Amino acid sequence: MNKESVAEDSDSLCVLILAPTPKDNEFCVNVLGDARIETHVCTSLQDLCQQVKQGNAAVALIAEEYLQTDHTGLIPELLSHQPAWSDLPIVVLLIAGEHASPSLNQLQELGNITLIRRPVRIAVFINTIRANLRDRQRQYSVRNLLKERNEVNQNLEIQQRRFSLALKAGGMAAWELQYDNLYWSDAIYDLLGIAAGEPVTLERFYSTIHPEDLPKLREVWEISVRKRQAFQEEFRILHSGKEPRWMELMGESVEWEMGNPSHFAGLFWDITAEKAQEQLEQRTAEIERFLSEATMTLASSLDFETTLESVTSLCVPTLGDWAILELISDDHTVRRMKIAYADPGASVLADQLMKTDSDPPQKAESSSPHLFGDETIFVENLTAELLSEIVQTSEHLPALRQLGAQSLIVVSLGIRDQQFGVLSLIQTDPALRHKIIDFKTAEELARRASIAIDNARLYKIGQQASAAKSEFVANMSHEIRTPMTAVLGYADLLASSENDPEKLKHLRMIQKNGSFLLDIINDILDLSKIEAGKMECVTERFAADELIADVYSMMQVRAVEKQLDFSVEYATTIPRQIESDPKCLRQILVNLIGNAVKFTSRGSIRLVISYDASGELPVIQFDVIDTGIGITEAQLSQLFQEFSQGDTSVTRSFGGTGLGLAISARLARMLGGNIEVASQPGIGTTFTCKISAGQVDSVPLIRPEKKHKSTPDTSKSLDTQPALSCNVLVVDDRRDIRYLVKQFLTKSGAEVESVNDGLEAIERVEQGQNSFDMILLDMQMPRLDGYQTAERLRRLGFNRPIIALTADAMHGDMNRCLASGCDAFLSKPINTKELIEIVARYTQ
Fold this sequence. Notes:
The protein is 46% helix and 20% strand. It is α/β, with parallel strands linked by helices.
């Protein structure tokens, strides 16, 4: 390469591009082309250096990968052999996610290197290229200046005139430093805002510099002059009659020919407009980032209070020192909901503002109850007089004056053409008064905040409705199941002592229809639990074949009554244990098999079980196959809808609510599966239920033996129940329930006392704490409910078993019983066998 690697006469403003890939080259060409910047794509470092040598480059854009493979030192050599005036700007596209390499750091010491991280931001990329092009233009100006000075002996007057015209056109002032004497062109007076003709010494020049920028500029100047190093520095000046302005000063050591001593020369120009544009672009980027983060923050929670807190905290300090959120209540009053502030010491003032949130009794009808009214306001320069006009009531004025507000933005909050509040933003720093971009940002934030607040409000309403529904279901369960306990219980009592066959037949009919009514109640309550989101599946490991045997024993009774064959078949091996909810699975199988029994008049019902581990998750499948009446295509579409059966004639013929299949389908989905159906009218129907088998990779596979009983075991009766020898306290507000429970337990050998409610139970225990072996406690009673009673009994020191009597409306009720101090629970209507067994288990 020649001694000088940059052509002397070229004024090229072309950007040479050597990007990582052809696609990246195309991207750079398109982006810079859109910005009207000339480009040329190079094929290699050698090609790029040749283009620079030929004067075809103003800026070189090079990917870091090429610099890492520049083993021959083409770029260092290129930078080292530039003319004195040239400092070729090189923009390096850094490898994404990596720090600058040591070789790149060394390269920065040789030349004018600018680093851009990938992926690039287009605005920053274009501004960087433009800044380097302007830098190159100034280098050309310096080159031309120095070139003209070399020709001073030939035509000094013409050269001076041309130079002055060039500076004037560029809005620049030229300067020279010789023998500690500083010389300026005439443009310096306008740039510095000083009187024309006044001597501009170095100290006079320093006196115009902003105090915050002066130390650094002085240091750069002195080091550069002493070491004869080129420099370029940006700083502010205190221009007479104007706000501080941004300037740029550059210079370098110049060697004169003919043995003249070296000196410094350079340029000085105003960059205030460029700085303003740069700050605007930076502010715009900050606002975009702020709104993006605000959207994510507002969407992160549906809690009403959290959303309100987020709205105000997001605004400080980005949009002001204070943010005040006011909402309109249902009674049309305005409440100051949230206040956020930047100064940690302003909590007392914030409390004062929060307390001034009530409408004065006497208020003009035209006045707004809001702090600053309910209309959009933007005041860039808020004076004390204007503040007095804007504030709606005098009670707020002292606190707001104490804030020291300098500017104000008020934006309305609302959705669907309905305003429900306002957001007020106050800036107290005079240097940071709100601008139009802040106002537009506040409007956009208010729009997004309105959606978030409305969503949170609707969610809150939904939660309250869900809670009310859950409470209603619990109360209905208690009010329905408790009388059913009396109906079925008294029927059991009568049947146990009745010998007349005719009367016994009537009692059995009462028991049968009571059980049928209970099934309907259970279906309705189960559906309500699912819809309220209160039905929970509790996953545990259990033996599926044992559960199937229990279901078989239970359903065989119904099949025998209709003279149907009922069998269980295992088509494949199955895991010894699966992971699921046995209670939900049992309910699904009972519903499907019960449905098959109901709609099959003759023939058979088969339960076929298979296991499939070939998919992503292992699945266990249950096929319930019957030879019943079948289902038409039209009926299939309504099969899993609530309160729906095939048609009204089916309802009349077979009865039922049409809820069993709807509940089973939802339970199957909760267990990670589904229910499908295939049917032919007049031939039969197959219901296929698939559920997840859980994590069973290490569980051995088995083929269960058929241990199912062919006939139901009806031999067990009250007489075979275990004999009791204990003292039991029954607590229930219903006299009939107390009587029934006492009768059942007394017949089994227990001694029973009863009280009306929780307060009486506590008094009775206090009188004889150790006289009761167990307490049977109803959970829904007046004066003191069962939950509170259990807690107080435990605090009194009663450590004997407490069994809850509950309507079992919600799974959460069971957990609440245990958490309050109960040892176990019985669901109403009370099953005699279960009652005696649980008393025996906990007392013997």
